[in-house]
Design a protein that fits this description.
Blueprint (H helix, E strand, L loop, with lengths): L2 H13 L9 H15 L8 E4 L5 H9 L10 E4 L2 H10 L4 E4 L5 H5 L4 E7 L2 H6 L2 E2 L4 E2 L1 H16 L2 E12 L9 E6 L2 H13 L7 E3 L5 E5 H11 L7 H4 L9 H10 L2 E9 L3 H7 E3 L10 E8 L6
Parallel strand pairs: 1-2, 1-4, 2-3, 4-7
Antiparallel strand pairs: 5-6, 7-13, 8-10, 8-12, 9-10, 11-13
Helix pairs in contact: 2-3
Length: about 300
């Protein structure tokens, strides 16, 4: 490992400690590596775009670290939440914050082209916005179509040779209707699950009580959603997190969607950030089943045109 790599390993280890459990560390590390690689190939400072930037933790942290390699003034963060953007502008002066819906192709068309486009915990919000009051839950086919349309618009913001960095929730493989039995650590954790099942908005959560008062049977799909939301139950963030499904695509669906947009995937990883926390809360009683990886990281570029 070179001294440069050692420096950045140490830098990010110190810088990202407060973000360890927020599911953004892997995305920042991957984007940092891409910025440094691209800076050796591109003579001008790089432009970075983050869609759904929120308070700017990801793009702001990257631009601060790589201020000599990136053009802060022409890099852009887009978000619909004015309060989040105000915090972003305050914490990262010089970064241009654009208020608006990043699924609007006209909005993105006016931003220009970028060497790096970031979609970090953003597309699951697009998916969750397709809640159908008639169905009483998310209209899944319509929601997945909106996600792919948003992905297409994001792809259109890439310069030739640019990189798309996606980090988001992952639907685990296997039959989502498969039933498993879980045991809660104690009654407090069990009551938190009941709160989740009662208040979670995107889908109806079904479970069956069994003889043991600390155990329930539920589907693999509902179990995964409980895990990814359990860290927010009882906290202020629960008011917004309970409205969103973190999962929307499986790995196969991500691969297919990227291929349809002409994107070549160079790195794909599924990972978890809360495994030890989950093991401290619940035990899976059903043999042969382990906790799922709930995150996916994808680095992709527009595929070169095929030669006929």
């Amino acid at each position: 490992m070179s001294e440069t790599d050692e420096f950045w390993d140490f830098y990010w280890e110190m810088r990202l400690q407060p973000m360890e459990n927020l599911g953004k560390r892997s995305a920042i590390l991957a984007a940092s590596r891409l910025i440094r690689q691209m800076a050796e190939q591109v003579e001008r400072p790089l432009r970075v775009l983050e869609l759904g930037c929120g308070e700017g933790q990801v793009i702001g942290t990257l631009l601060t670290a790589h201020s000599q390699l990136c053009d802060v003034q022409t890099s852009v963060g887009v978000d619909y939440n004015s309060q989040s953007l105000a915090r972003c502008r305050r914490d990262f002066p010089g970064l241009r914050g654009v208020e608006g819906d990043f699924t609007d192709p006209d909005l993105l068309a006016g931003l220009g082209k970028f060497e790096i486009v970031l979609l970090v915990n953003a597309l699951h919000e697009v998916f969750s916005d397709s809640f159908s009051h008639e169905l009483g839950e998310i209209d899944v086919p319509a929601a997945k179509l909106r996600v792919e349309q948003a992905l297409a618009s994001a792809t259109g913001c890439l310069k030739p040779g640019g990189w798309l960095v996606l980090f988001d929730g992952l639907e685990p493989p296997g039959d989502p209707t498969q039933t498993l039995c879980i045991r809660f650590r104690d009654y407090l954790v069990r009551d938190g699950f009941f709160t989740f099942a009662r208040e979670y908005h995107p889908f109806r959560i079904s479970y069956r009580k069994v003889a043991d008062p600390l155990c329930v049977d539920l589907s693999w799909r509902d179990f995964t959603r409980y895990l990814t939301k359990s860290i927010f139950i009882g906290k202020k963030l629960w008011e917004t997190e309970r409205l969103e499904s973190y999962q929307y695509f499986s790995e196969l669906e991500f691969r297919a969607a990227f291929a349809r947009q002409g994107l070549a995937i160079f790195e794909l990883r599924s990972l978890t950030v809360n495994y030890e926390k989950w093991r401290g809360l619940v035990t899976i009683e059903t043999p042969g089943i382990d906790f799922p990886n709930e995150h996916i990281l994808i680095l992709a570029q527009p595929a070169p045109p095929r030669v006929i």
